[in-house]
Give the backbone structure.
Amino acid sequence: MWIGFLEFDFLLGDVHSLKGKRSVVRPFVSDVRRKFDVSVAEVDHQDLHRRTSIGVSVVSGNATHITEVLDAVERFAAARPEMELLAARRRIITSDEM
């Protein structure tokens, strides 16, 4: 079993409140979940209105599939005009490494 994950750090555009942040983050999380069939959640900076960290994970029988999915998710995230991608950290491990 292979496990892959990405952690994105985003700077949000014209957002001035936590309510405004939710209106940007929730649709992104929902779109990623629906489009790529992965697990995704806001994982850090919940109390800051212009920053967010989003975690994405996927499990598969082979590493090639995970790499393809994570590449597609990263391209999708980088193309969002309302969110500036500051960093993306990726890791792919096997269940033997746990």
